[in-house]
Design goal:
By secondary structure, the chain is mainly beta. The chain is built from 1 helix and 8 strands; from the N terminus they run E-E-E-E-H-E-E-E-E. It has one domain (about 15-50, about 70-130). Strands 5-4-6-8-7 form a 5-stranded mixed β-sheet, covered by helices on one side. Strands 1-2-3 form a 3-stranded antiparallel β-sheet, with no helix packed on it.
Length: about 130
């Protein structure tokens, strides 16, 4: 995760700092309290959207499917524990939670404006909508 475009934000969960020796400019805040049943949350305070990168780092931004921006993330699975990092992320509106027997992830791009979907199950618990 990273701050919104143009915003300065602090890490929204208790974390420990990770600075890999091979990448001295990278500083990640890694959630210190996640349960074994939830994702490993990381925060990149200096992160920015690709369109904000300097020209020297800029990569092609035209996706073959016309995708522009990730607009929704939904985690499916058994209920998460009260006080979990995942529940805090949902309370902040950064993702949605959906009750399910198994685990899964749904990503929506551009508000689903094209009305299209790719379901990667059962090989991968992932559904992409755009």
């Amino acid at each position: 995760m990273r701050p919104e475009k143009g915003a300065v934000g602090n890490c929204p969960f208790p974390a420990w700092e990770y600075r890999p020796a091979a990448m001295p400019d990278l500083v990640l805040q890694v959630a210190s309290e996640p349960g074994l049943d939830e994702p490993m949350w990381c925060w990149l305070e200096t992160g920015s959207a690709p369109e904000e990168w300097p020209p020297s780092r800029m990569q092609p931004m035209n996706h073959p499917a016309g995708l522009q921006r990730l607009t929704s993330v939904t985690l499916a699975g058994p209920s998460v524990s009260q006080g979990s990092v995942t529940l805090r992320m949902a309370a902040l509106g950064l993702l949605s939670l959906e009750a399910a027997e198994g685990y899964g992830l749904r990503l929506e791009f551009d508000g689903g404006s094209q009305g299209r979907q790719q379901d990667f199950r059962p090989e991968l618990p992932l559904v992409c909508r755009w």
